[in-house]
Amino acid sequence: MTNAPPPPSTAAQSAREILTRLHEVMAARTNAQSKLNQVVGIIGECLHSEVCSIYLLRDGALELYATRGLKQEAVHVTRLGLGEGLVGTIAEQIETLNLDEAAAHPDFSYRPETGEELFHSFAGVPIIRRERAVGVLCVQHSDPRRYEEIEIETLQTVAMVLSELIANADLVDTAARTDAAAADQSAQRLTGQKLVDGMGAGVAVFHQPRITIEHTVADDTEAERHRVYAAFDKMREQIDRMASQAEFGVGGEHEEVLETYKMFAYDEGWSRRINEAIDSGLTAEAAIERVQQRTRMRMRQIDDPLLRDRMHDLEDLSNRLIRIVSGQMGTAAQMGLRQDSILIARNLGPAELLEYDRRRLKGVVLEEGSLTAHVIIVARAMGVPVIGRVRDVRTSIREGDALLLDAGAGTVQVRPTPAVQEAFDAKLEISQKRRANLAALRDLPAVTKDGVPIELMINAGLREDVAALDLTGARGIGLFRTEFQFLVSATLPQRERQQRLYRDVLDAAGERPVIFRTVDIGGDKALPYMNLDDTAQEENPAMGWRALRLALEREGLLKVQARALMEAAAGRTLNVMFPMVSEPWEYEAARDLFVKQRAWLAQHNKKLPVAIRYGAMLEVPGLVETLDLMLPHLDFLSIGTNDLTQFLFAADRAHPRLAERYDWLSPTVMRYLSRVVKLVAGTKVQLGVCGEMGGRPLEAMALLGIGIERLSITPAGVGPVKAMIRSLDLAALRADIPAMLARPAADPRGQYLAWAKAHGVDLGE
Predict the structure, then answer these.
(1) What single DSSP character describes residue 282?
(2) Nearest to 516 by CA among 453, 457, 467
(3) CB count, 10 Å around CB of 632?
(4) What is the C-alpha to C-alpha distance for residues 520 and 501, in angstroms, rounded to an integer?
(5) Helix (H, G, I), strand (E, B), or coil: what is residue 299?
(6) Which phi-psi region, left, alpha or beta, contains residue 250 (left: φ > 0; alpha: ψ -120 to 50)?
(7) Following CA atoms 655, 660, 661, 662 in sequence, which dihedral angle do they give, to the nearest 10 degrees?
(8) Neighbouring residues of 429: CB distance < 8 A, sequence distance ≥ 6
């Protein structure tokens, strides 16, 4: 008869019991192998597990070092490469596995010498040292069952203590791995994802030195608890001080980001988990690291990028807290940047970035990072170029290395050769000259050579984006994405907060129009604080329960936004646009909701807009079939080329193999858009384009050619597109476009490029 899993009450005591006994083992005067043999016996006994094994990294492979339950003759014989088998997968991915049937896992690798065919269930955790897996601790059982969460946490706690034991015994070879990589003195080119555009050159500066926890088992639990309390107080004081001192010149959404960050600093759940880890017998440093490891593992399992970014904020605070409690507060920011620098970090929190001298900080390179991370919003406001998702950055770059960062290209040149430096300098000079030339166009009208005025507007979503109106000379905001406020908030923004944002945007825009798109959330823009479980497993989120579909179902959400928009626009004209309209009734239902909310506000003597103009986004291709029914009820129509194109081609624009496969200038897209222009012609409806297509000079030229005369684009695209417009003979283009659509070339992009070159159109290339 096999052993049954321990009851939760027994399991809850296991960590403390195991640590107490391990402390005695570590203090004993025996060799490392003897200690490991005792460790597997203690863990197996306390967790009532038939098998407990320890694998350690030696000579690039994971070697079975000690076991209880497997055949002893397999010790120092069984070896698994990184990524090989369950053990190798745990070490390579630095993740936990908990399986009721190990053999069913696709990475399972059977080793007959171990005798493990008798066992079904399997759980394993990485043994981590300096953020690298140096081994694996695992347990097995003959009965198919998943280990309890408290048992997994016990294993993770024990793995921390094992890390200290094996490091002191010099049993792992991580030093050899890192030293070999560090010995490389040659030039390198690393690639990553553009997060904030720009170029910068400087020396490599690591944000913080690694803090290695040398003591994991606590002698006095209460003393450790008081150390953590004191560290929390100090950390919160630092965060409050930095948030109050942050200056950007204008108010912006980054201020809300910092408020969210402060909320995490005061989160009671986080401090409670650290206290629970201390209760298990860990020191303050080890307890924080224990919770941090759990956070990292959860981050790897989270598909939602926004929720994952909030976990990054918590990780940033953990780093700060562990530096405080260990007395190792030195970061590159505290030491001060002595020269132009490129900051290197695994990740950064928004408050940490604010500590740096912006005169010296020329760029940031992150091992992780994403476009929606809080630190990126702050970096954009600071004007600091950033790239993320750069692999092996800590082993490829050394402190003080010369770096050339080109965020637009997603590259960082490490220890560049003179030729690479020269090419970078030339590109930077051209970029600066081009920016200066485009800046000179700011106050000039967007009018073609033959006198046709084109309305150039910008897309925005944050308060600080409005400043781009003055910087670019744009005529207004053709698309204000109201969901950004929802995406960067930790809780659902209340009406007063929404109203304040909309009023600030309108005030900053002055007489220039602003078109507010109602909230486009759901699908691939999930909010962690909204219960959208019915959409959590959508196979095609971009075509799922999102945007207007979701807003019409969640009427309260749209009602609150309607009132906030109307009160913010009191005394002015309000322009409202509904996203992802599929059929006329959806547009009519949304407009009717706004009409009713306007009546409600009037009954309550609220100040109202002088007029409300209603529009729709054309993103769903099928809407064109009923567009004639909608046009009499529309004031304006905006073509969202991003979603429209992926729906036309049934191709996910985020898919790496499909991203460049379907061209905006293909006959499919151009003929479709030309059809829309003809349908709208002769009506009162203003037609425009508000997708990325309009922000590229060649594509914008093609749009003008088929009759589009209103573009809403990224602020960075205004200058180049305006230069194109002022060099274009629009009548000549419109004379040739029908033939180009009727008889498209095999290479349509080449066809448009050849026309532009023949007619002297400035494409900035």
Answers:
(1) B
(2) 457
(3) 9
(4) 17
(5) helix
(6) beta
(7) 100
(8) none
β-strand partners of 81? 61
Strand 514-517 to 573-578 pairing = parallel
Residue 278 C-alpha from the chain's centroid = 32
Residue pLDDT, tens place only, 656-693: 455 556 688 999 999 999 999 999 999 999 999 997 78
Q: What is the pLDDT of residues 499-550, one digit of tens each?
A: 999 999 999 999 999 999 998 865 545 555 455 544 445 555 556 656 677 7
- Spatial neighbors of 34 by CB under 8 A, at least 6 apart, are none
pTM metric for this prediction: 0.56
Q: How far is CA 474 from CA 189, 465, 596, 715, 764, in A?
A: 37, 12, 33, 8, 19
Q: What is the dihedral of CA 520, 526, 530, 535, to 10 degrees?
A: 100
R_g over Cα of the chain: 30
Q: Which amino acid is at 560?
A: V
Element (DSSP H or E) covering residue 364 = strand 361-366
Bridge-based pairing of strands 61-68 and 79-81 is antiparallel
CA distance 757 to 445: 23
Residue pair 308/291 in contact by the 8 Å Cβ criterion: no
DSSP letter for each residue of 119-187: --EEEEEEEEETTEEEEEEEEEESS--PPPHHHHHHHHHHHHHHHHHHHHTT---HHHHHHHHHT--S-
314's tokens: 């918590």
Residues 183/185/189/190 CA torsion (nearest 10 deg) = 30
